[in-house]
Each structure stands twice: as C-alpha cells, then as structure tokens.
ATP-binding cassette domain-containing protein (Flavivirga amylovorans), 385 residues
Amino acid sequence: MTRAETRIKEVVAFFENKDTFLGYRKLMDCAIDTQDLDIYNDVIALTDWKEKHPNDEEKLIKRSLEILSRISKIPIEDYNTKHPVVTGTNIIKSYGANRFKLGPISIKIHKGDVYGLVGENGNGKTTLLRILAKELKHNEGSLKFNFDKDFNSDYDLRSNLVYIPQRTQKWYGSLKDNLKFVLSNYGMDPKENETRVLMMIARFGLWNYKHLKWNELSSGYKMRFELARTLLRQPELLLLDEPLANLDVLAQQVILEDLKSICNSINNPIALILSSQQLYEVEKVSDKVIYLKNGMHKHNKAESATTNTSNYLIVEIDCNCEREKLKQIFTDLSLEKLIFNGGIFIVYFPIKIAFPLVLETLGKHEIDVIYIRNITKSTRRFFVS
Ligand SMILES: Nc1ncnc2c1ncn2[C@@H]1O[C@H](COP(=O)(O)OP(=O)(O)OP(=O)(O)O)[C@@H](O)[C@H]1O
C-alpha cells in the first residue's frame, strides 16, 4: 500500500468513526496533495455547504467519502526527504563582547519534519530562527541551503523559506483579497488564483472570516491568516516564532496538528521549525526538540551520560498534599529528591522505579492528584532542574 493509500484509509476511518472535525481537515490535506483544481473546487463547494448545514453530519460524511474516492484515483508521487534542506555547522552569533552569544550550534533539517525550538526567555530562540531565515548574519560557522527551487538572490530565497516573526504586520482590505494578492504576484491566472485561495481559506478554518479586515480578526485568526498566506507560496522551509502565543489551548493543538499534517505532505513536504513556550504541545508534534540554554543546544537524550538527570525517573505532580506527607509516602520508592517548583512538585526516583508504581502509591494513599506527568524523557526536566 502506498503512503497516499494508507492516508486515505485513515481518513475514511475518521469519517466512519464520526470524527468529522479531524476527518474533514485530513480530507483537505489529501485534496491539496493532488494539486488538482477540480478536486479543490469539490472541496470548496462542500465547505460552503458544510458551513450552511452544520447539523447534517450524515450527508457531510457521504459527500466527503465521495471526494475521497475521487482523490484515491489520482496518483500521488512520494517525495524523497533524504537530503537535508538546511545544514548549519558550528554556527556562532555574538551580539558583542560580554553580551549574549549563541552557539556553536549544528543542525540538519529535513523536509517533512517538525522541529520544536524551546527554552526559557532570552536563550536565543529568535536569534537562531533569524539566522536560519538569513535575516541576521552569524559570525562563525556555515549555513547551507539545499532547495529544489533554485535561488539566485535573497529575494528568490524568500519564496523558498518563510519566516513568520512574533509580531506580524497590519494589512489592509479583506482577508481573501490579501491572499489573492500573494498569488497574483506570481502572475497566476485569476480563476486558478480564486480556487487556490479558497482552498487555503477552507483548510485554515477561515471560511466565515474571509471577508473580514485585519482589525476585525482575533490574534488567533490573524495567525491562521499568516499561515494560509505563507503556505500559498509553497515554501520548502517554514520558520515560525511563537505561533501559539495568542491561541487558546484547543486552538494550539489544532494548529500544531494541522501544521504537522501539512508539513508531512506526501509530494510537497515542508521542513518546519517553530519556537514556543508551550513545551508539551510542541513535544507532542515535534520529530525533534531543540532545547536552548544560554545560547547552547542542550541535547535531549535521556540516556546521555552528560545530563545529571539521566539516572532518575522524574515525575511532575500537582496535588493537594503536604510536602512532608508526600515525602513519607514515597520513602518506599527510594525517593531521591523532592522539589517544589512553581506550585507543583518535581519528584526524582531511581530509574529502576516504574512510573505505574508511583501512580499506584498515590492511589493507595488516596492522594488527591490534580495532574501528574512522567517527564523523564521530556525537555521539561531541563526547565525544572
Ligand atoms: N539586536 C540585539 N542586540 C543585542 N542583544 C540582543 C539583540 N537581540 C537579542 N539580543 C539578546 O540576545 C539574547 C537572546 O535573545 P532572543 O530574542 O534570541 O531569545 P529568545 O529565546 O527568543 O527569547 P524570548 O523567549 O523572550 O523571545 C537576549 O539576551 C537578548 O537580550
């Protein structure tokens, strides 16, 4: 079975399980991979119908499955993501003597992969993104791009790599007109322009917002607009600085999943690096997490001998329990260390202790647990140690 066939099968299963919210977004990804304007028009017509008939789930499923069946007849070529699209070697950036220094950092970025860039404030995330975007010059090391589309100037480079900063600029006119403007700059025929723009509007859940102006959109929808605008340019490398900053928790998860799915396109994958403070959300979708501490890349290898946390099971717990009581109940589990950090406990056990045993112990003592997480392999442990 090809990747495309496997994916269509998955999407059919979402609809069969009546998970139409996810199924419909994945259906649109399958449609985008066909690059077939007739399919796009089918999806656009169905999106319009769906917005007008929000309660007719059965018909939506039926019509979606029909489109999927048409998509399955279109051959989709697998893109070979073997070669990195960016290779940075020993990159160093200094803002001057006795000031912040980033690096040396070495990094290889492949299309189809999502890289999460995390770290506390002021540790160099934006600096690294701006270097990769060629907005900022590095002092030492090499940075090589290997794009499919040739670039002869920094202007050309801008269509291969797109950097969306934390604060984006105001625009004028309607959301849809602004998106159409992007493609008209590439000299696209007006009919195709309309179809591609409406497809992207549908994909980013902007259908009911397409006639609104900048000041009529919430920050979250402004970010969706930026993503739609960016993806219309079909970049090969996408650099996002804090894209989740203004989104509510559910929207953060939806946008991250969408980005992952779009970047994982079968025939047109994109390499994505995004910086964020939303560690868990980012870890969930990232193929690799880059944790920056004082400008250095701290490698997240739980087994690494260089990390002083490697020999522990580390658990984060929020519970209604006194510190002394917690200490006492964990004595049997050979408790190593108990830290109270920002309202939650960080508990260290020898690595031989299994996480379910911690759960069992808390249950046995009827501790009122609000939240618990095993952070042994998460970069979260760097934030608390
Ligand atoms: N143009 C500049 N000149 C001098 N120092 C700078 C400049 N830009 C950034 N810095 C310093 O470099 C360090 C790293 O900044 P950077 O914005 O890269 O961090 P960050 O991890 O993105 O932080 P945040 O999470 O707060 O956005 C900070 O100490 C900052 O003050």
Summary: The pocket of adenosine-5'-triphosphate is lined by residues 95, 99-100, 119, 121-127 (CB under 6 Å). The CA atoms of residues 238 and 272 lie 5 Å apart. Confidence is low (pLDDT under 50) at residues 302-308.
